[in-house]
Design brief:
single chain, 594 residues, mainly alpha, Clc chloride channel, CBS-domain, 3-stranded mixed sheet, two-stranded antiparallel sheet, 4% strand
Length: 594
């Protein structure tokens, strides 16, 4: 049985309860109280996510085939060449994307994806936000921009989990698990890799591995992969022949490849940000995607491998021995296409692009070592797969996700060990030198402080206005200490808030200081005031409040409105006790104990 929360929920309105069908009330109670029922719900969400992944991929591929006149058995990035006039689809698609953006321009706030929903909003996702993100991603990929569909897959998959949780009024922790289960199922369906999908949910969307989440997330990922497989969809995962066993020296050599991939990933993320910033400064929003499409045309005319996510190109390049000059050209072309696509406003991500670019870097690394030494040092296929994981970890994050992806593709445990080591090296370097994955870096640019999907929403919700004690005892700052003693006898309160002649905050005086021996009773009360220039606003969350206490080095702070009038007072002891209580509650929920 799932444990019952230790806190008391408000009593629901009996009139509203009567409007809820009896079967739905029974289902809510069942899912909230039974772990087996919760896993069953996750499986349903995973199946829906898998089906949505199939539909989204089919729509994008159909667009590409219609717009570029591709044969049925050829994907865009695998085409040998494209008719030059067909490349006009790229700027035309940019115009269409701008029109779609204009149609939804009323949404002034930033769109909330699954990672942000789990980090800040307790797993609550918006249908409208998800529709916009999925629609823009499908359109961007469908017209050939160098972006992947994984953002749409994860968004819609997470939405199914969120809607299921909201429909059944589940707890915050359960909502977050269901969002993770939905996104993991979508990735599992796309790649045909349920283990990788489950780890994607843990590392990228939930932000932690927890005992309470293992069963529902794994079950959902398996369900999503099975739905895709039963519908005959060819997964993205690349199945390659097992390479030679890797020994200790190989791990050291692959660490060098991981270092290169980490640095290259940082360059890509920085470049996208730089181009996006310049484009926003120099160009109006409606023109950016169209101009980006024009810039993609010469890249695509040289090699269609730079277009779309690059699934077919990855298969071709991984299975074929190609000249070094061609691999370098495709690496630069794909990198430029991805930077231009994202920098100029096409919607999507770098998930699959990082996998593709990583295989190219791995190939080049193996060829370069062979050229230096005079004989092959690394197996090119092994090096490509290690590079694929290392660069994807640098950009997307999730070292175990990428490691499991390679394991499910190859079944080679020796290679998987090298991939894990390289992934950890890459992750460590990126955290040290950059500190963000691509998604959390974009949150950082918007002013958010999150670096993962770890639940910090409860901190945002716990504001100074909620924690303060109203009705603080006040006194004019200009009165004498003797008068202050007469107005506020010893023992009546521990602190007095001083106000200036316009009733605005002027500092805090502790009662003990006012009655201390040796204090001149004829001096004005303001001479004993502290925290004069330090105060809180009611919307500051608990993390900011604790930072303010550390900076002010005081035991109490006043909460002021915009005009400087006192709303209440908060003590550091109370804030830290509330933080400890909420943190313990979050930890209990994380491990399924509440």
């Amino acid at each position: 049985m799932r444990p019952v929360p230790h806190f008391h929920l408000p009593h629901p309105n009996p009139r509203l309860l009567r409007r809820v069908p009896a079967w739905l009330r029974w289902m809510r109670q069942k899912v909230r109280g039974s772990e087996f029922s919760f896993v069953a719900l996750a499986i349903v969400a995973g199946m829906a996510a898998g089906l949505a992944t199939v539909v989204i991929g089919a729509v994008a591929r159909t667009l590409q085939h219609v717009l570029y006149g591709l044969p049925n058995d050829v994907r865009l990035s695998g085409a040998e060449s494209l008719d030059p006039w067909r490349l006009l689809v790229l700027p035309a698609g940019g115009v269409a994307l701008a029109l779609l953006g204009w149609a939804v321009r009323a949404r002034k706030r930033a769109l909330v994806d699954a990672v942000e929903a789990n980090a800040l909003h307790g797993g609550r996702m918006s249908r409208a936000d998800s529709a916009v993100i999925a629609g823009q991603t499908v359109l961007s990929n469908g017209v050939g921009a160098s972006v992947g569909l994984e953002a749409a897959y994860a968004q819609v998959g997470g939405l199914f989990g969120s809607l299921a949780g909201r429909w059944l009024s589940l707890r915050r922790a359960d909502m977050r698990v269901l969002v993770g289960a939905g996104t993991g199922a979508a990735i599992a369906a796309a790649f045909g890799a349920p283990i990788a999908g489950a780890f994607y949910a843990f590392e990228i969307v939930i932000g932690a591995y927890t005992p309470a989440a293992i069963a529902p997330v794994a079950a959902a990922a398996l369900a999503g992969a099975q739905v895709s497989q039963r519908l005959g969809i060819v997964p993205y995962i690349v199945h390659v022949r097992p390479g030679p066993a890797i020994h200790t020296s190989g791990y050291i050599i692959y660490a060098g490849l991981a270092t290169i991939c980490a640095l290259y990933g940082i360059v890509i993320m920085r470049a996208v940000t730089l181009v996006e910033g310049r484009a926003r400064t120099w160009l109006p929003g409606w023109a950016r995607p169209a101009i980006g499409g024009l810039l993609l045309m010469p890249i695509a005319s040289w090699s269609p491998q730079a277009l779309s996510a690059g699934h077919s190109a990855l298969h071709v390049d991984l299975m074929t021995a190609l000249p070094v000059a061609f691999i370098v050209g495709v690496l630069l072309a794909k990198s430029a296409a991805s930077i231009v696509s994202l920098g100029f406003g096409f919607r999507g991500g770098l998930f699959f692009a990082s996998l593709f670019l990583g295989t190219l870097i791995g190939h080049l690394y193996a060829d370069f070592l062979a050229l230096i030494v005079g004989f092959p040092v690394l197996d090119p296929a092994n090096a490509a797969l290690v590079g694929m994981a290392a660069l994807a970890v640098a950009v997307v994050g999730g070292p175990f996700t990428m490691t499991m992806l390679v394991l499910e593709a190859t079944g080679n445990f020796s290679l998987t060990g090298a991939v894990l080591a390289a992934s950890l090296v890459s992750s460590t370097i990126v955290r040290e030198l950059f500190g963000f994955s691509f998604s959390t870096w974009r949150f950082h640019l918007r002013g958010e402080t999150i670096k993962s999907a770890r639940d910090v929403g409860w901190m945002k919700a716990l504001a100074a206005g909620q924690m303060m004690r109203r009705g603080a005892i006040t006194a004019p700052a200009a009165i004498t200490i003797a008068e202050l003693r007469r107005r506020v006898p010893l023992g009546s309160t521990s602190r007095i808030v001083l106000l200036d002649d316009r009733a605005r905050y002027a500092g805090i005086v502790t009662t003990a200081a006012a009655f201390a021996v040796g204090v001149n009773p004829d001096a004005i009360a303001a001479t004993l005031a502290h925290a004069i220039d330090a105060a809180l606003s009611p919307e500051m969350h608990i993390g900011e409040v604790m930072t303010a206490f550390d900076a002010a080095a005081t035991d109490e702070l006043a909460v002021l409105d915009a005009d400087g009038h006192v709303l209440g007072i908060i003590t550091e002891t109370h804030v830290r006790r509330r933080y400890a209580e909420e943190l313990e509650k979050a930890q209990r929920a994380l491990f399924g104990e509440a």
